[in-house]
Design brief:
The complex is a heterodimer of chains A (about 220) and B (about 250). Chain A has six helices and 14 strands. By secondary structure, chain A is an alpha/beta fold. Chain B has a single domain, classed as TIM Barrel. Chain B is built from ten helices and twelve strands. The model of chain B has no long low-confidence stretch (mean pLDDT about 90). The chains are: A alpha/beta (about 220), B alpha/beta (about 250). Chain B: One of its GO terms (cellular component) is cytoplasm.
Chain lengths: ~220, ~250
């Protein structure tokens, strides 16, 4: 089999090194490139849209560097696309963060903040960000869940979340509210958690991504 | 509650070696940081924190290489601290593979640095480290390995750092650090209850029960320890089993 190309879209937000290293670890036959070059992304077999930090800055960079059109053409091409963290939130319609930010609208949902005043079973306030390892319950049978048990823990770090809507939620978690931990449609899937930081379960998910043809 | 309490082994690194001292002196060698990090990853550590305890200009290159080597082999969150003073320092560490940076004395000399860092990189990767000692009826922040008082109240400072954009507080009791008598529970609880961001308790772990006390009595979201793991006394897995027996949610 010839070497497959995986492009991680670099639009200046965050640490892309970990994602690249994790992919290289699970798929040594892949050529991984971190890039903002539209042609390289266009020629890649698999594409990852990462993102950390504040959504307004991310969306500004996405628009400025025309990542929105790259994402659009990736989706239309049918090749597998993975969004991670703010890269997932960017695929939704809008976010409440930064006084309201319009996003790419590939999924009909809003991103909201974990409100202050949420408490756990002992009545202690829930800390925000939601930071650490939480259970992810699988809601659908998806190729990306291959060899991963439902309820496995993944690493999260976020203050905003998307509601778990039945028509796009592949996995959900609970932190004060139930929220979407993984969303999907056709050749797109996206995680609120960081698979590249989620040890074995996360590495398995990334391996599944590299082996996926983008079809359900 | 489903979110697991975290166990974070801490690697104090000096000139490319993991070391451990008592009350910041009497240093013992505990091995190669990459090997140590890999071992903790295999044992189920939830994160790894690495502190450059010398943080000299000459040592910085070694530290970057160490971060790169760990990040290429360990796929759990990695926090790096020690000598982080500028936006460039943060960018360098994140590019090397760190997920979070821990800021300590630079926050004290210039609190605005925390705000700038948080705005630039996001609160999720900005940890503010607080080294506190008991002074009369309160806790005060000390710098320079505990030698220099600042006059700043530790609880007030934690609240202020949250307002400035810290995503997490790494709280070390300098009275307890290295003496293995357990966390300063009152300090941990005072800070954890005062802020709405996660608090990592640090300093003083000598046995497994201390870890549970940090969570149950100190209200810590994560517990950090070094020497009980470095010298083979306990594994991370044993620590988690013990916490689970105390009905604490852990990732097993």
């Amino acid at each position: 089999m010839s070497t497959q190309q995986l492009a991680i879209i670099d639009y200046g937000m965050g640490n892309l090194h970990s994602v690249a290293k994790a992919i290289e670890h699970v798929a040594p036959n892949f050529s991984v490139v971190v890039t903002s070059d539209k042609d390289i992304i266009g020629n890649a077999d698999h594409v990852i849209l990462p993102g950390v930090g504040a959504i307004r800055d991310c969306m500004a960079e996405i628009r400025q560097q025309q990542v929105d059109t790259v994402v659009q053409s990736t989706i239309e091409s049918g090749k597998p696309l993975l969004g991670i963290c703010v890269g997932m939130q960017a695929l939704l319609k809008s976010s409440d963060e930064n006084d309201g930010t319009d996003c790419l609208n590939h999924f009909d949902g809003d991103v909201q903040q974990f409100t202050k005043g949420l408490v756990d079973e002992q009545g202690l306030p829930l800390k925000v960000p939601h930071m650490g390892w939480n259970h992810v319950h699988q809601r659908v049978d998806h190729p990306l869940w291959h060899n991963i048990e439902s309820g496995s823990r993944f690493y999260f770090v976020h203050s905003f979340y998307a509601q778990a809507k039945a028509d796009y939620t592949a996995g959900s978690s609970h932190y004060g509210n139930e929220f979407a931990a993984m969303i999907y449609r056709d050749n797109i899937y996206a995680t609120q958690f960081h698979p590249e930081k989620s040890h074995q379960a996360g590495l398995q998910l990334l391996k599944n991504f590299t082996q996926w043809n983008g079809q359900l | 509650m489903p979110l697991a309490k975290r166990i974070i082994p801490c690697l104090d690194v000096d000139q490319g070696r993991v070391v451990k001292g008592v009350n910041f002196v009497n240093i013992r060698d505990a091995g190669d940081p990459v090997e140590v990090a890999k071992r903790y990853n295999e044992q189920g550590a939830d994160e790894i924190t690495m502190l450059d305890i010398t943080a000299t200009h000459e040592g910085r290159g070694t530290m970057i290489e160490t971060v790169q080597a760990i990040a290429g082999q360990v796929f759990i969150p990695l926090t790096v601290g020690g000598g982080i003073r500028t936006i460039d320092d943060i960018r360098t560490m994140l590019n090397a593979g760190a997920d979070k940076v821990s800021i300590n004395s630079a926050a004290i000399s210039n609190p605005e640095f925390v705000r700038q860092a948080s705005q630039r990189f996001g609160a999720q990767c900005i940890v503010v480290a607080i080294d506190a000692k008991k002074v009369d009826d309160h806790w005060e922040i000390f710098t320079h390995g505990g030698r220099k008082p600042t006059g700043i109240n530790a609880v007030d400072w934690a609240v202020k750092m949250e307002q400035f954009g810290a995503g997490e507080i790494l709280l070390t009791s300098m009275d307890c650090d290295g003496v293995k008598t357990g966390f300063d529970i009152a300090l941990t609880r005072a800070v954890a209850d005062a802020v709405s961001v996660p608090v990592i308790a640090s300093g003083g772990v000598g046995n497994l029960q201390h870890l549970s006390e940090g969570v149950l009595q100190g209200h810590a979201d994560a517990v950090l320890a070094a020497s009980i793991f470095h010298f083979g006394e306990f594994t991370i897995e044993q620590a988690k089993q013990d916490m689970a027996k105390n009905a604490i949610e852990v990732r097993l």
